[in-house]
Design a protein that fits this description.
single chain; TIM Barrel; 2 domains; 8-stranded parallel beta barrel; 51% helix
């Protein structure tokens, strides 16, 4: 069975699929080692690891890192196709060639990095056309089971939360009708919004969790209880990696000692390093 079919079956199983987001082969291998069934590539996290803002991460580098991640693990991998990089057909073909099992395609307008939190989305028809073309390409290229995760940023683009939620639901249903397998709404901040989406979207719903705007508002268990099909953790891996490294180096700089590293669980065991290295060599 293809990894695309395996991933699609996970989404339709009725059980919530939790997908931490990887930013390099090592983070992907750790995700697999910890027992997660699939890996989500995060353009946001890949960009941070490259010292860039997400809008400055180009197609070639995103694709290259994704291909490295696919080679490093045995579980299905979903790519972050961003907005399709101005050529949805080329993007779908390239990521399928890299071996991904699924791909995110979004409707936001990706502007040059400016630090602004304000988002815009393309019009409904253009967004739907992108999803339809993605599905058509997957079928014509011999990977009909490629999982298409259609993302909308309408919650941040609307004048109000209620208007954004309504627009998100409309777009999600249009995306699913156009061939998407999964409807992904970003910037969901409350369990009430989650329940509304699960109720009104006519298909599997994906929610991003563990983010600054919702990390204290709901748990994975609550999302499971609501019937969410997929939970992505878009920045947990990169944020915890940065924090752990910064804490370690700060401790060394301030004390000149190493004993606390072991006492605080900040050192990976030599055996674990060997396990990861051996695993990578097997792929």
């Amino acid at each position: 069975m293809s990894k695309a079919k395996i991933l699609k079956d996970m989404i339709s199983s009725g059980r919530t699929l939790v997908m931490p987001d990887a930013y390099d082969p090592l983070s992907a291998m750790i995700i697999e080692q910890m027992g997660f069934s699939a890996v989500q590539c995060s353009g946001y996290s890949i960009a941070i690891a490259e010292g860039l803002a997400e809008p400055d991460l180009d197609f070639e580098r995103n694709l290259a890192v994704t291909a490295e991640i696919v080679k490093a693990v045995s579980v299905p991998v979903m790519a972050d196709g961003e907005d399709g990089f101005d050529d949805i057909v080329l993007t779908i073909k390239a990521y399928m060639k890299a071996g991904v099992a699924g791909i995110n395609i979004e409707d936001q307008v990706i502007a040059a990095s400016s630090g602004s939190a304000i988002k815009k989305v393309i019009d409904r028809e253009a967004a739907v056309a992108k999803i339809r073309e993605a599905r058509k390409t997957a079928v014509s290229e011999g990977t009909p089971d490629l999982l298409i995760n259609a993302r909308t940023d309408a919650l941040l683009a609307a004048e109000s939360r209620s208007a954004g939620l309504k627009e998100s639901i409309v777009r999600c249903n249009m995306f699913l009708a156009a061939g998407a397998d999964l409807a992904f709404v970003t910037n969901v901040a409350s369990i009430e919004e989650v329940k509304t989406l699960v109720k009104d979207v006519s298909g599997p719903v994906s929610i991003a969790a563990g983010l600054p705007y919702n990390i204290n508002n709901f748990s994975i268990k609550e999302l499971q209880d609501c019937g969410v099909a997929r939970v992505s953790l878009p920045s947990i891996a990169i944020q915890t990696s940065i924090a752990a490294l910064a804490r370690t180096l700060k401790m060394i700089k301030e004390t000149g000692e190493f004993t606390e590293l072991g006492n605080n669980g900040l050192l990976c065991r030599k055996e674990d390093l060997a396990t990861l290295a051996n695993k990578k060599s097997q792929h």
